Amino acid sequence: MANTQDYTKMMQDMMGAFPVDPKAFQDSFKTQAALGEKMSRMVLEAAEKSAEISNKWTKETLAQMGEASKARNEPTEYSKAMTDFASASAETAAENIANFAEIAKRVQMDSVELMLATGKDLSQDATAAMKKATTEVTTAAKKATAQAK
Questions:
Q1: Which of 149, 129, 108, 148 lies closest to 20 in space, CA to CA?
Q2: Which of 17, 32, 46, 77 could form a disulfide with 72 if both were Cys (CB 3.0 to 4.6 A apart)?
Q3: Confidence band of 17 (pLDDT split at 50, 70, 90)
Q4: 121 Cβ contact partners less than 8 Å away, ≥ 6 residues apart
Q5: Model pTM above 0.70
Q6: What is each CA distance from 52 to 46, 103, 108, 125, 135, in whole angstroms?
Q7: For residue 14, how many C-alpha atoms fall within 13 Å in the half-sphere facing its CB?
Q8: Domain positions in the chain
């Protein structure tokens, strides 16, 4: 009968010939976890600031509506109250939209800085891992060549 090939042994031998540095994977994971933490912190901070702006805007609008809804003696006073309300609402909207834009701009700048720093870290980790792997593979190849002679 034909003998079956032991693929498990063959795979173990093959993987042993190309050693993998688990520290490189661990370092990469730590870098990714740190990136996730920094991104989360940045997003939560932006969300908190946005919520504060929305809350302030709502309070201002409600106060303006309270003023606009007061009873007036003359019909022309209602027109003036509505004009004042519209003017104040437009001014408040412009101010708050500018505040939202500042938050978005800050998040964008922080994201770019964070990605550049992370890319640099990952590049350094990858370079170190490749140098180590190259050295190990070269050593393994030399041993295999020496054993073959």
A1: 129
A2: 77
A3: low
A4: 31
A5: no
A6: 10, 12, 19, 40, 55
A7: 6
A8: 41-122
In whole angstroms, give the CA distance from residue 145 to residue 136.
Answer: 14
Residues 6+ apart with CB under 8 A from 129: 21, 24, 27
Query: Residue 126, Cα to own-chain centre: how many angstroms?
Result: 21
The one-letter amino acid code at 59 reads K
Q: Lowest-confidence range among 3-17, 36-50, 89-103?
A: 3-17
Tokens of 44: 């939560």
CA proximity to 92, closest of 60, 67, 65, 54: 60
pLDDT in tens, 18-57: 666 677 778 778 888 888 999 999 999 999 999 999 999 9
At 69, give phi and psi (nearest 5°): -90, 5
User: 148: which residues sit within 8 A by CB, 6+ positions away?
Assistant: none
